[in-house]
Automatic annotation (TrEMBL):
It comes from Mesorhizobium shangrilense. This is Sulfate transporter family protein. It is a multi-pass membrane protein. Its main location: membrane. InterPro entries: CysZ/EI24. The keyword Ion transport does not apply. Keywords: Membrane, Transmembrane, Transmembrane helix. The keyword Transmembrane helix applies.
């Protein structure tokens, strides 16, 4: 059931509608990261540089600006690490578009799902960003514990990603409480699907497509589970 959903989702990543969403997501992500970089470097230049000259009065001007440049490079590297989480947040604003494409192309005879209100989508996107950041902080801390570091990354992310994306797909057709109850009933299946999503998230460049792939896969998985429930 999970592999069938994954194959169906992977085959749809090359549809024009998916490419359009991906390009919009990537463009907005890069704009957000560039804006963050300029904002943070300006903050360093405005706050840190004057204090540097206060504590080191004999410091030559070029050394202070060298420090700003090094800080900017460090911030750029930090922004690179944030590409995947920020992409996930931006993609969260377009997940309903992905779900509508899947439902229209693969389930034309079924009633269409209901798109979530824009504010609700933003709240869910920010919550998803929060849990992904928290999960990866925990996983990074567990890197210090031999033997469980890699397993911790996949277990934590598999659970959180599976939960968030399945509930998104389910809430297009069900009330929020009912969607959570269905996810708990099929917790094992949803977790295994989440592990597959976490595997994609761990691969550089592929992780940029992960939110779109995950949304499409969970739409297929929810359809299959719904059919089983009805049967």
């Amino acid at each position: 059931m999970i592999l069938d959903a994954a194959r169906a989702a992977a085959s749809q990543l090359f549809l024009p509608e998916f490419r359009s969403v991906f390009l919009k997501t990537l463009g907005l992500t890069l704009l957000a990261l560039v804006a963050m970089w300029f904002g943070l470097t300006s903050l360093v230049e405005w706050l840190a540089l004057p204090w540097l000259y206060v504590f080191l009065p004999g410091l030559p001007a070029w050394a202070g600006w060298l420090g700003v440049i090094i800080a900017g490079i460090g911030l750029a590297l930090g922004m690179a690490l944030l590409i995947a989480p920020v992409t996930a947040v931006v993609a969260g604003l377009f997940l309903d578009d992905i779900a509508e494409v899947v439902e229209r192309t693969d389930y034309p005879n079924d009633p269409p799902g209901r798109a979530m209100p824009a504010l609700r989508s933003l709240v869910l996107a920010m919550r998803f960003f929060g849990v992904v950041i928290l999960a990866n902080i925990v996983a990074l801390l567990l890197l210090l514990v031999p033997g469980i570091n890699i397993a911790a990354f996949f277990i934590v992310n598999g659970y959180l990603l599976g939960r968030e994306f399945f509930e998104f797909a389910a809430m297009r057709f069900r009330p929020e409480d009912e969607a959570r109850a269905l996810r708990r009933k099929y917790a094992g299946t949803v977790f295994l699907a989440g592990l597959l999503i976490a595997t994609c998230l761990a691969v550089p460049l592929l992780n940029l497509l992960t939110p779109l792939f995950a949304a499409a896969m969970m739409v297929h998985l929810h359809k299959t589970i719904s059919a089983r429930e009805t049967a």
